[in-house]
Amino acid sequence: MAWYVGRRVLQMIPVFLGATLLIYAMVFALPGDPVQALGGDKGLNPAVAAQIRAEFNLNKPFIIQYLLYLKGIVTLNFGTTFSGRAVSSVMAEAFPVTFKLAVMALGFEGLFGIALGLVAGLRKGKFFDATLLVVSLFVIALPTFVIGFVLQFIVGVKLRWLPPTVGADVTFQTLLMPAIVLGAVSFAYVLRLTRTSVAENLSADFVRTATAKGLSRARVVNVHVLRNSLIPVVTFLGADLGGLMSGAIITEGIFNIPGVGHTLYQAILGGQAPTVVSLVTVLVVVYIVANLFVDLLYAGLDPRIRYA
Amino acid sequence: MPEPTRPNQAHFFADLDQTALGAVDSVDESAAPTSLWADAWHSLRRRPLFWISAALILLVVAVALVPSMFTSLDPRFCELDHSLGSPASGHVFGYDRQGCDIFARTIYGARASVTVGVLTTIAVVVIGAVVGAFAGFYGGWFDSLLSRVTDIFFAIPLVLAAIVVMQMFQQNRNVITVVLVLGVFGWPQIARITRGAVLSVKQSDYITAAKALGSSRLMTLARHVMPNSAAPIIVTATVSLGIFIVAEATLSFLGIGLPPTITSWGADISKAQTSLRSQPSVLFYPAGALALTVLSFIMMGDVVRDALDPKARKR
Fold first, then answer.
1. pTM over 0.90, yes/no
2. Residue A48, H or E segment
């Protein structure tokens, strides 16, 4: 197991370097000169522009800029925005909000996806199963923002059950609807995955053995079927955390949530390259680490993986 | 001298049709062997879901190819007099905020979505299948290298990358730029699936046989490995086609997808946000058309996957 963990961690390093370099190159290839743009129509005094360039290392060759930036990340120094704020303080404000949102979405999709998927899998081919399958297909086929608009309009504006937007007031209640919207598509995937997995395991030899040795139906389903069926589902959920955090860019836009997605989108529109690079880098790191964690968890849950 | 009788030595011979060998004789050699695809087609054509999704896909493709066959109205002919107007004779879906006919806009919006979906899927399959096939087939350090490159692109979420890159194409956004962006960041999934399929096919006896017969490595890969690895690639590609249509709509929703000069469902849905409260149909029709299109591709992928999987196939 230790060997497996070591190999996976080592594999992560080139992926991290490659991904950050790619992001850095893409962001700094953005057209327009962000430094000149700071001065508006009038333009900046050349001396001031040169000073800003020197301060943000924009006067050095690209690869040196990247290496300096990398050094910053390793020492947890993410630099400052063009307006002089530390990027780390911007992130400290935005990340907890998005993290909360993503975890709530994950909870929603895990709880309802597994429960409904289990019921559907146990009744494969019956009416309930068929209905759930059609519903899940529709949820996958609808873009997240359409689900967002419709829920916001019906639940928030017409019925007034939940507040339609979040704003500065980030609580469990205000985040509930955005979290459901954010987790909706993954909920459909979790449901389908659990259903397939449960239906497959129901006809496995070890389940027949468990039934044959006289275990109750509840014990067979809860312990033997469910636990074995959850392996692919847990993998999906873990990998989804990173996906949810970057997917939040749309949900945060619709519900006006002051999280990473919102900040990132504003930064991209405003040409704030340092902020964009830092936020995207942290998102990518979350994504890579979540995937690594899932791989290790997977190896822990299923010994066959370790020795393969 | 008479032969001594040895009754114990008498052997019992079963008739040939009662032995295991009988099964060999009973095989009808005149019947052509059924391939995986023939079997799949055999089970596919009995599934109503297959025919429903096939009909929907054909309809959407027809609408995308010749929209003028389905409506005589011009989607860009708008009169503010009709702003958010209710359905009227000849305008069954009503009007949007600009006073354009929603039915015409929904019909003409199909082309952008379908083009983006189809072209992106082609791009993704070409890049992903080549990378995955070479990684899986050649193995060793070459595999490690290609797999890490795949991981790098996989680690950057599609929408994030697309937002950053589309920002570069601020002035000349069109269908091709959207396809390029989605293609460049969308291929890792296909690459991983192809690699997995190639790895398992590579072990087969017929690959060893092909090599023994002197087939070159590249020839073995092209002639024997790829055709037998195609099934999972085709299934994933079909489902991805739907997902890419959603991705294009998402980019248009964020205002960095197709420009307003191109009629597209994504942009229309995005615009509908402000009119939703007074006229819900502004959102309903383009979103419904988009959902139905994506749905038909996902259903098609699902049905084909079931048909290709001998375990799931009911005969």
1. no
2. helix A46-55
